[in-house]
Structures are given as structure tokens and as C-alpha cells.
């Protein structure tokens, strides 16, 4: 099958979050399936363009029309990818050249990604790659199914389009005038992306694509409710007939405690007791905590954003530290109020709390390996990947039972049996504290039970093989319809 995957970020080239990780592993997993031909399209951000590790050749170029604009687009094929995925970057210095630090957050983001979406379709025609299916992701490529239907139908008469929602919070809103000024779509498509007079690109994608997926089964059901859907619940409910959840995997080749080059000691599911103890001691030294093998080390690796459940942790932190014997380590950057909270907490409890307000993938790996307990109380979580990373490295998750957290962390009982971690149902600090206490009790009172749970976490199959198979099933379903 010929598959085109379109996204605004993809590791290792460029990544701001989980979407980037998925765009590294999913295309590779699909390319491993015999008979598949996989192209991945990404913007040619200057950080990629200037990185000598990513040599490219220009295989095509053309102009893209956006309303009254004509913009150059180059198709730059990466020449050194070896796993079968063909990576094409869309080049345009005005949209993806030097613009300060982050990849998103410019005032003309709507126009930038409208350009990218249209340029990808144009590029496929120019390089004569006519895919059976296009899989596109989040608001940045949400215009693809609409452009495909409205303007590219004659060039791609048999191509079907899947739209995947990784996070419904960011929908691609624009003024009503954006429709004529930038999109230049026929007027009959105005309605499908209209929300109260404004343009909503995600809504357009949901309405015009052939299938919608989300990144976990529970999240696909949660999206029917206003609490989770950020205004799109009615639209999602109307599209329920074509909506499916596929829970993400993680890249198990990179995330392997047996070979991870970031770790001071290596281990697997059989040898983890000694290996993790060595990693824990080294981690405590690295982050400035006392080296205490029998004090449970609780950690969080996260963007410091509200929906990650930091309000709950702030609410219970002092009670937890006064009443329980434990250490707490936070790694991440984000909203100032949380950065300051954890800095202050570390100053107040220097022997118990360490706050690393930075972004550091190597340290993240050493934390997954050296910790005992991984906290993920997210208010909502479409899938979440780090709870799976943590489990693979033998660190027991304590999570809010929502979205992908609910699907990947079935709850265990107080003896650590019957599940993979500790969960709480209703989003409040006391329930979170209750789940944490059950976990800490198991650690203190029944270490064998805790170890058995760690072992079970480590032997789970979080690879992309199964989810990639489910994507294939849905691709076939679209084609047979
Ligand atoms: C988004 C979601 C996260 C998910 C990731 C990859 O970042 O917030 O839950 O794991 O996408 O699908």
C-alpha cells in the first residue's frame, strides 16, 4: 500500500511533544510491513535545514497558490534515512526560516500550515507519488482532507484520507476572512469549517476526511463530552460513525534499559533489581538528593502545563512531604507559576525535593531508569507516552484514569496485583494522594509485591507493531468502502 504521512513535527528532525515521537515511530512501523511504501512529509524548518546530519536533495519545486499569494515550495528528500521511510521536507524560507525559537506560536501559523498542507498535496503530484491513503495529524495538517476533496480530487481520484487527533485543545482557529484571503477554497466548503463565523480547521478535517482516529480508545469516547472536547463535542458525536481510537506505542528500540546509552547501568526485566539500584544511586547524586536506596523516589518528567495535573501535585505536595517518607524529583519547563512552585519547594525541602527546570532528554532517560514511582495525574491525556517509557524502565506509574492513561495503566490492588499501576478516577488532589499512598504503602510494606509489579510493567509489549496493524486495518477499511 502507498501511504503518505503528513505532520508538522517528527523526531529526530524536529519535536516539541508526543506528536514528534509518534511521527518517528509510526512511519517506521508501517514501512516494516511488507508491501508498504511510506512517505513522510514535514516542513523544512531552518533547524533541520542547517543540521549537517540531515543531507537532502531537491527533487521538485513549484509555486503554491494561497488566495492571492504565490509561494515557492521546494521538495527536499532526505538522502540518509535507511529504514525504508522516504522523508520529504517542504522548503520555504518565508514560512519555515528563522523566526525565533519555537516551531509554533507565530501570528501567521494558520497561513504557514495552510501552505504546508497544500504544498504536500502539490508535491505528491509533482513527484508522481499517488498514495492510496493519506494520514494527517492535528490542526496543522487539518486542511489536507478538505483541499483533497475540493481541489485535488481529479489528481488523486482514489486517495482516501485519515485524520488523527493527538490533542483536541489546539484546533486551528482563524477569522472568517481567512477562508477567502488565505485558503481560497470554493464557497461550498465554508460551512464545514465554520464555527460561529470563525474558521475552525480541525472541524473541517473531521467533516471532510474518510476516517477520524484519536490516539487512545478511551480518549475517542471522552471526546463526545464537552469536558474534554473544547467545543467540538457535537461535531465529534456527529462523526462517531467514522471515529476510532488506536492507542499509541513507543519506540521500544530507543527505549530499552538494556542498551540505552544515557544510563550509568543497564538492566532488563530479570536483572532490574541491581541495575535499577545503581541507576537510582547515580540519579540521586546527579540531582543533588541524598543517596538513600530505601526511600521511594517519585518523579515527573513533563511540560509544566496545567492540564498535566500539576495543580493537584501542588495541592498535595507539602502534605505528602510532611506525612510520607519519600523523595520528589521534577524535570521540565513551562508555565512560570509551576516553575517557581517547584523551585520554592526544593528550597524548602532540600533533602527531599529536586527541581530541574530544564529540557534534557538524557536526564529524562536516567530518571525513568533510576526512579521508583512515576506520577502522571493529567487532567486529560489523549494518550501519553511517558507512562509507557516509565513502565518499560521498571518505574511504577500513578496516574489519573483518563484517556490513554486509563488504557495503558490498568489498576492494581493494594498488593500490586491485577494491574500495572495505581490510578484514581475523579480529578481531585485527595484522590491522587490516596492512589500515591497505596503505592507508597506497597513499596514500604511489601517490597516483593512492589518488585513483582515492576517486573510486570517491564515485560509489557508497548511496541508499535500492534497499533501499526490497526492502522493498516483502518486503511484497508477506507479503501474498500
Ligand atoms: C499529544 C497528546 C499526548 C499524546 C501525543 C502523541 O501530545 O497530548 O497525550 O501521547 O500527542 O499522540
Brief write-up:
The protein has 481 residues and is an alpha/beta fold.
Structural account:
This protein is an alpha/beta fold and 481 residues long. The chain is globular and about 70 Å long. Helix 12 (310-323) runs parallel beside helix 13. Helices cover 39% and strands 19% of the residues. It contains 19 helices and 18 strands. Helix 13 links the parallel strand 14 and strand 15 (353-356). The longest helix is centred in the first third of the chain and has 18 residues, at 109-126. The protein has a nine-stranded mixed β-sheet with strand order 3-4-5-2-1-6-7-11-12, with helices on both faces. A six-stranded parallel β-sheet has the order 15-14-13-16-17-18, sandwiched between helices. Alpha-D-glucopyranose binds next to helix 1.
Runs in which pLDDT lies below 50 for 5 or more consecutive residues are none
- What strand order characterises the main sheet? 3-4-5-2-1-6-7-11-12
Overall 3D geometry? Answer: globular
State the oligomer: single chain
Small-molecule binders here are: alpha-D-glucopyranose
* Strand content bin: 15-25%
Mean pLDDT: 97
Number of strands: 18
Specify Rg, calculated over alpha carbons: 23 Å
Count of DSSP helices? 19
Task: Describe this protein with a few key phrases.
about 40% helix, binds alpha-D-glucopyranose, six-stranded parallel beta sheet, nine-stranded mixed beta sheet, alpha/beta, about 475 residues
